[in-house]
Backbone:
């Protein structure tokens, strides 16, 4: 999928900071240990991501409640408007619906 042109640089910096280049089978997005501020070996959970987004929103002065779905919905909309070839649009919509059904089933 197309991505922002800064993604390569940011991802390279992240991989360097987490030593993931040396551990290709470990989780890509890791939680941070509060006491040390260092990346742990554990994958971020959905609640971890939500809390991180909320902290960043507060720091940015955003009063609206936003979360993981906000970025997913906004990202898909932007992708469909700007970059997606017609053939991949329907595939992306199907993937989004499938993921939403799986999440709703897992969570109850």
Residues:
């Amino acid at each position: 999928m197309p991505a922002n042109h800064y993604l390569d640089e940011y991802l390279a910096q992240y991989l360097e900071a987490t030593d993931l280049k040396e551990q290709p089978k470990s989780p890509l997005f890791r939680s941070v240990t509060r006491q040390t501020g260092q990346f742990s070996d554990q994958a971020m959970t959905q609640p971890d991501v939500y809390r991180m987004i909320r902290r960043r929103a507060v720091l940015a002065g955003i009063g609206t409640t936003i979360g993981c779905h906000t970025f997913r919905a906004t990202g898909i909309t932007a992708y469909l408007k700007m970059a997606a070839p017609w053939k991949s649009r329907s595939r992306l919509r199907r993937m989004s619906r499938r993921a939403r059904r799986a999440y709703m089933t897992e969570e109850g």
